[in-house]
Design brief:
Layout lengths: L11 E6 L2 E7 L13 H13 L5 E5 L2 E5 L1 H20 L5 H4 L4 H17 L1 H16 L8 H15 L2 H8 L17 E4 L5 E2 L8 E8 L6 E7 L6 E6 L7 H14 L12 H22 L6 H13 L6 H6 L4 E6 L7 E6 L3 E8 L2 H15 L9 E8 L2 E8 L9 E6 L7 H6 L5 H12 L3 E6 L5 H9 L7 E6 L6 H6 L3 E6 L13 H8 L6 E4 L6 H12 L5 E6 L3 H11 L12 E9 L6 E11 L13 E8 L4 E4 L1 H4 L4 H8 L8 H24 L8 H22 L4 H18 L6
Parallel strand pairs: 2-3, 9-12, 16-20, 16-21, 17-18, 17-19, 19-20
Antiparallel strand pairs: 1-2, 3-4, 4-5, 6-12, 7-8, 8-9, 10-11, 10-15, 11-12, 13-14, 14-15, 21-22, 22-23, 23-24
Helix pairs in contact: 1-2, 1-4, 4-5, 5-6, 8-9, 9-10, 14-22, 17-18, 22-24, 23-24
């Protein structure tokens, strides 16, 4: 809320926001920081406001910081306002009949002071009227004024029934003074340049479980994880740097924001958001420096950069969403409608579902929606109430899903999926126990064998992450065409690693009309773009038919892979054939189905991601692959051991897909031992990287940059040994590979890709 210049101090305006009436009170220019708890005058003015506007449910005192008092706090003061009105106008406690016959002037003065005190200090007024009753009852019986005593007793009963006084009585409060209100009326403090409300105080009775910092040095935020009594969710408490700034810095940001906000970014400026942010950062820094010099406020170079970052974040950026996305432990961020009445919820890698101390404003929600429309070039309106897009910040990527009216009757809602800063790798999956080294070796072998495969699973099962890790197993010398409606796979990062990759963006299946090409057209176009591996981000709709065309064309030449929702191979078949109308015989173009699903702990409160199954699709069946033995498991998850185990068919060499791969490689045809040796060798190399990274305490060795180097060395050594003895024998390959990898480890330093 920004008051117009010249608005008098204490003036207020009531606005309707998401179903609640919010009163904004102007304290800009006041020579003090407004506080209902500390200052009796502010409490009295607030009660007067509630007497005039009894329907207000939230109050914001506007200064360099905004001091937000929530519905519960306002309700306590609203009760005092109602009690004041009731006693004055209905009970008429200042009337002669209520005051009695003796000493009316003295009683009038006391009652008048009591009514005024009810606004300034309700608990002190309560104590005074109790003392007055004791005094009146101490008089001799013949001198007692029964009407006056009854009036006092009734007033005491009414005030004791109010939430505020009852709470203070229940806590055994006897000290008096303004300190008794400090916990009850602690406001959420919001910088004037921001809209989101942040509860700075930790929840009462909560136990601190963990605490850590996120962000870079000059822009650090503190995260506190708490457990509230009798609640299953953890509480995620965020304190970003913008909420700790001193008054001078707050003033500079307010002034600078008022200047920058006059510039409305055009759609073309969002074509390259990174460049736009850098331009705005430079402008913001120069503006802040000029304002600080004019106001004679010293700002260090570090503080100047910090203030400029905050200013960009809260003007052309996405406010506290950007701060949350700095936390590498977060997976999902959810904002439910009505946004201003619901806290942000999120999913944490370690603590699962969490509630946060953040309440977003409707202004933020509307502003974000407008920016995402411009970034994506896709519609978001009543005719198109769903928007899928992505958000790319420095070293952070996220998928954004937005719904609005009429689909979401209470307005805008957001679901944000934070992608890992760097792509997942097979060694990382081994370390996190999603798979074991043997499974990783087999997957690497199958990708090298140019098979057609689908990665299946439920929501949040790690399908896209696994597909990204498998892309890293494709030799960089081969071209890759990637087709997605919402970019999620790490194409930019792989390109920086030297991969020959073309990323194509197609129309979302949720949008009927758009200037983007449909997914099936994109897939068919890829077949005319030369010899390439084809990766489809997710199979959702009619593009399934086109994908199976590509699978039939690409079989035995290049990898064709994609993700699909399904909890088992048959569920994938059912979805592809019955939901997406792919002919039954076309499904046989699928060679392999990989299934990843979350596995819940016995208490049902936690889950871990696991690779559950790897099945090959045989070609002899006619109508139903399940009934006719068309699915043969190569790997199966053992829930007791919590790991994948090879099936008897795989151990005994009864895999048609692997035999087909072997039949096209000299030295492997008819030599199952050599093939199995190569699978074990690949798994051994993955495990070696995991072990060395743990031994040397160098987690960067598990990341894509080093894994790509290790993969290249593996192919080089395998090629050299094959030329020498005919096959890549593990006893020759592994020692030479590990020796070269060890040399690379000594000189490897992760770059900031």
């Amino acid at each position: 809320m920004i008051f117009e210049k010249g608005t008098r101090v204490y003036a207020y305006e009531v606005r309707s926001e998401a179903g609640e009436n919010v009163a904004y009170v102007n304290y800009l220019g006041a020579p003090f920081i407004p506080s209902i708890a500390s200052l009796p005058e502010i409490m009295a003015r607030t009660v007067d406001l509630l007497i005039e506007s009894p329907n207000v449910s939230r109050i914001v005192l506007v200064q360099q910081r905004n001091y937000n008092y929530n519905a519960e706090q306002v309700a306590m003061l609203s009760e005092m306002a109602s009690l004041h009105t009731f006693l004055l106008k209905q009970e008429r406690i200042l009337s002669p009949e209520k005051l009695g016959n003796f000493g009316t002037a003295e009683k009038y003065e006391f009652m008048n002071n009591f009514l005024q005190g009810l606004k300034f200090d309700p608990f002190l007024s309560y104590r005074k009227i109790k003392d007055k009753l004791i005094e009146q009852k101490s008089f001799p019986l013949e001198q007692q004024d029964k009407n006056y005593i009854r009036a006092l007793e009734k007033i005491i009963k009414l005030i004791e029934d109010t939430k505020l006084v009852k709470r203070l009585i229940d806590t055994g409060e006897t000290s008096g003074g303004r300190i008794i209100y400090s916990e009850i009326f602690a406001p959420d403090i919001i910088p004037n340049f921001a809209f989101a409300r942040l509860a700075s105080a930790l929840p009462e009775g909560a136990k601190i479980i963990d605490q850590y910092d996120i962000g870079i040095e000059e822009d650090k935020s503190t995260i506190t994880i708490l457990k509230k009594p009798n609640e299953l969710k953890y509480f995620y408490h965020l304190m970003p740097p913008e909420y700790f700034l001193n008054e001078d810095f707050q003033m500079l940001l307010n002034l600078a924001r008022n200047v920058l906000i006059e510039h409305q970014p055009k759609a073309e400026e969002f074509i390259d958001p990174g460049r736009t942010r850098q331009v705005f950062f430079n402008v913001a820094r120069d503006l802040l420096q000029e304002l600080s010099q004019n106001r004679k406020i010293y700002v260090s170079y570090t503080d100047l950069n910090k203030l400029a970052n905050i200013l960009v974040r809260h003007t052309i950026g996405f406010g506290l969403l950007e701060v949350l996305l700095q936390d590498r432990e977060l997976q999902d961020i959810v904002l439910n409608a009505p946004i201003s009445l619901n806290p942000i919820f999120l999913r944490h890698n370690k603590y699962d579902e969490c509630e946060t101390n953040i309440l977003l404003s409707q202004e933020d929600a509307d502003s974000w929606a407008a920016k995402f429309r411009m970034i994506s070039g896709r519609p978001l309106d009543e005719a198109n109430p769903i928007l899928d897009t992505d958000l790319i910040l420095e070293n952070t990527r996220a998928r954004i899903a937005i719904v609005q009216r009429p689909l979401s009757p209470h307005g805008l809602s957001y679901a944000v999926r934070r992608h890992r800063d760097y792509p997942w790798t097979l060694p990382l999956f081994i370390k996190n126990k999603m798979m074991n080294s043997f499974s990783a070796g087999l997957l690497s072998f199958l990708v090298d064998g140019s098979r057609t495969l689908l990665v299946a699973g439920t929501r949040s099962s790690g399908k896209t992450s696994l597909l990204g890790a498998l892309m890293l197993e494709i030799k960089p010398k081969y071209r890759v065409i990637l087709i997605e409606d919402t970019p999620e796979l790490p194409s930019d990062y792989l390109r920086k690693l030297g991969y020959d990759i073309l990323a194509m963006k197609v129309r979302s299946s949720l949008v009927e009309t758009s200037n983007e090409l449909a997914a099936e057209e994109g897939i068919r176009a890829s077949l005319r773009l030369g010899d390439s591996s084809l990766i489809v981000g997710e199979i959702r709709s009619t593009e399934a038919k086109a994908l199976y065309e590509a699978m039939r064309v690409g079989a035995l030449a290049n990898v064709v892979a994609g993700t699909v929702h399904g909890s088992s191979p048959y569920a994938v078949f059912d979805r592809i054939v019955n939901d997406l109308n792919v002919p039954i015989t076309s499904f046989k173009a699928t060679d392999l189905v990989i299934v990843a699903n979350p596995v819940k702990t016995p208490d049902g409160l936690h889950s871990v991601r696991r690779l559950m199954q790897l099945s090959e699709v045989r070609k002899h069946w006619i109508k139903d692959p399940l009934e006719e033995g068309g699915f043969i498991d190569l790997l199966k998850y053992n829930v007791e051991k919590d790991e994948l185990e090879p099936s008897d068919e795989l151990i005994n060499g009864d895999s048609e897909i692997i035999k087909e791969i072997a039949s096209q490689v000299k030295g492997w045809a008819g030599n199952w031992d050599a093939v199995y040796d190569n699978i074990l060798l690949r798994g051994k190399t993955k495990q070696y990287i995991v072990d060395v990274a743990e031994k040397l305490n160098r987690p960067e060795l598990l990341e894509a940059e080093f894994c790509s180097i290790a993969n290249n060395i593996f192919h080089e050594v395998s090629d050299e040994v094959t030329k020498e003895i005919g096959i890549p024998d593990s006893e020759r390959v592994f020692p030479e590979w590990s020796k070269r990898v060890d040399r690379e480890i000594k000189k490897f330093s992760a770059s900031k890709l």
